[in-house]
Structures are given as C-alpha cells and as structure tokens.
Amino acid sequence: MKISNWLLLAGSSAVLTCVLGTIGCPAYAFLGPMISAVIIGLLGRGPNVPDWSFPLAKSVIGALVAKGFTSGFWAILAGSWPYLAAGTVWAVFLGALMSLALLKLQIIRKETAFWCLSPGGAAVMVMLADQHGGDVQVVAFAQYFRVLLISAAAILVSGLLMKADTGQGLPTTFFPPMLWRDLFMTLAGVLAGLGLAALFPFIPGGQLLLPMFMVGLSKYFFNHGVFLPPWLLYPCYALMAWRIGLSFTRDGLRVIARMIPGLFAGVMVMFLGCAFFGWFMSKSIDIEPLTAYLASCPGGLDAVTIIAASSGANLPFITAMQAMRLILVISFGPWFYSLLARRFSKGTGQKEG
C-alpha cells in the first residue's frame, strides 16, 4: 500500500482530531479519525490497516472499561440486571422488526435482511451472514452504516442535548509522568486477555471482554491502578474509527445505493426506540440519563465504549448492557434470524443489485 495513503489518513485524522478537540467536540479522538476515514475511503485512497491491529486496539479499550470497576458499580449492576436483560431483548426485537420491514418492502432479500440491522458486533454479523448465504458486501455496508449513524447520534446526544460534563478538550500532555508499575500490570492484563481470546475464539466479543476481565482481576488482586496514557489510547481510538470509516467505498455505495433510504429509516427507528428505553430506565433506577441512553444505544460495542469514556458516563454499566446484547445476538441470532427468514420469505425479498 502506498505510503502516501497512510500519510493522508494519519495526517488528516490528526488535524481533524485537534480541530474538534480544540472546539470541545465530544469524542473528538474517535470522531476525527472516523470522518477522515470515510472521506478517504470514498476517494479510493484508503490504506489496508493490518488485521492484527484491531484486536490489540479492542483489548486496550477493554482495559479502559476495567478502570471503572468499583464496589459501587457491582452493587448497581446486581440491582439492575432485569433492565439490562429487557433492554437487550428490546434492541434485538427492534432490529428484527426493521429487518422484516426491509424484507416486506422488497428492499433486501431474505438471506441478507435479518443480518443487516442486527444490533450485535458488525464484524461478527458479516461472518454469520456469509455462513447463512447472505450478501456479505451488503451486510458489511449496512452494519457499519448503522454503527456510523448511531455513533454520530450518540456523540450529538452526549455532548449537546444532555449537556454532559464531558471534560472535553485536548489533553495538556500526551506524555504524562509514567506510572511504570501500573502500566506494566495493565499491559500484562491486556496481553493475558488477548491470549485467552485467541484460545477461545468462540467467546462473543472476547477480544474486548476478556482483556477487560483480566485487567479488572489484576487490579483487584494486585491493588494497582489502570494506567492508559493518551499516547496509548488515542491510536487505539483511531484504529477503531478507521475500521468503520474505511468500510465505505465508492463501489460499495454503487451496490446498495437504492437501499440507503430504507436502511437509514430502520436505523433511526432503532435509535429512537432504544433512546425511549434508556429514558424509561433512567426514570426507573438510579442511573443518570446519559449512562442509560448509551447503555441502550444500538451501536457497536467498541464505538459506544469509546464515546462513553469521553462523556463522563458510567462506563462499566454501559459495557455490561452492550456486552449482554452482543452475547445474546451471537448466541441466538443464527437460529432466530433463520427462523424469521423462513417464516416471512414467501412472496418477498427481491435480490440486491
């Protein structure tokens, strides 16, 4: 891959990140690289980001979640599990309902429709769609389109509508004083979690969740802090943002151009429905509205985690609900969506193209 493409992506991401951070935009370290990657991908200048970099970035984000594990969090989680379960089922139901609408309107064929708006991990949904005869290109675009829209909406809500205390602005230094023991123990937990994820690849979201648990256990048993300086976190944010943004290419747009209005409408219904559940949850239990909204948000686990981390919300609570949904979708999704496809396939579902 041309060095110039890498320089263009990295340079534009850095510039846009600095601009958005200076003006106090929420989640600027994620939004800047994502916008840059979308533009560069559509221009046909996107470089090939190495596959190994994404698990590494996810594992660091998992360590970030573990930083918020406290005794108070566990008490809240223990008392809130019915809402976590209900929110998970609600999001899956909305995704299935909108997929059924796309199928009935003959926008997407049956083998593909029920994977396009499933509120689970985008990469996992693409893999499952391929295994069940779906159009991988359509599912990939639809899933990352969902993540892109939901991420933008989450950033807007967290920073503007809810007036959150986001603590925005560029960090005073990217190289703070080093806490060597905390950094060593944090990275040891990250690597241990990555090793377990490689040994047990069938665990849903394992590349994020297993490092999260390992760092959390290390923090508890060895009594150390979780040290993640900006020079480590920001590149991980960028890698996750690039994965989303570079999924959008001119060829992909040409293939599914006519599906975009239907996908947009479906994603917006899911967004509003989950936002309503978040509002209901915030009124029912002792959870601030921003945390309830992001916990119920039907976006990608990685993207929502990054947005939550920069928005002052209860990160572990949000991750618990997002992870529960991911596990449910991956565990029961193939059976559930195959059942729906068989049940509603008669007379519906024209082929994409």
Short description:
The protein has 15 helices and no strands. It is mainly α and 353 residues long. The chain is globular, with a radius of gyration of 20 Å.
Query: Structural class, from secondary structure content?
Result: mainly alpha
Strand and helix order: HHHHHHHHHHHHHHH
Query: Strand portion, in percent?
Result: under 5%
- Total E-strand runs: 0
Number of helices: 15
Radius of gyration (CA) equals: 20 Å
Percent helix among the residues? over 70%
> How many angstroms separate the termini?
29 Å
- Choose one word for the global shape: globular
| Tally of distinct domains | 1
Largest sheet: none
Weakly predicted, low-confidence segments: 347-353
Average pLDDT taken over every residue: 82
Note the main attributes of this structure.
disordered C terminus; 353 residues; 0% strand; mainly alpha
Verbal overview:
There is one protein chain. The protein is mainly α. The chain has one domain (55-233, 255-343). Helix content is 73%, strand content 0%. The chain has helices at 3-22, 28-42, 53-66, 71-104, 110-116, 122-131, 136-161, 180-199, 206-222, 230-245, 250-256, 260-284, 289-296, 301-309, 315-343. It is globular and about 60 Å long. The relative contact order is 0.20. Residues 347-353 have low confidence and may be disordered.
